[in-house]
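Checklist before submission:
- one chain only
- standard amino acids only
- sequence pasted in full

Submission:
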Amino acid sequence: MSRNRRIAALEVLQRIKQQELDGIGARLSDIRTEQSWINEQLVSLSQRASQEVEAATTETLPFLSDFLQATELRRKALTLRLEDLAKAAQDIEEELKSAFIDSKKNEVVLDIARTKDQLAEQRRETAETAEVAQNIYLRHRQR
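Returned file contents:
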């Protein structure tokens, strides 16, 4: 494969890797957003339960127990979802790390290929310049 085609292929691969990284990052961001929302819901739920306990009267006491049980069930459900999200986030972070390493490896290979191409181009130009100089010298010498 010619140098230019190899560099072009590596550039396409690098763009694909970058899109993959962006997609993984977006998924992780979505999870972090949901985790934040759940944490806000847990705080709100605790505050609401505290408010209801403080505002309880003799008429509302029979209902307070059911309300607190429902609050506890909701808190447990949110906590379980938060744990699931934490596990998913951990998996995605590992995937992101792996994709990042692959991207950096490809970037290094691309940089090396570009450097080799530049060196080859410089050698070609130097050889052309030397040939031109040699031809000029030979012409002047023959006169």
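Reviewer check: Helices lie at 3-55, 61-142.
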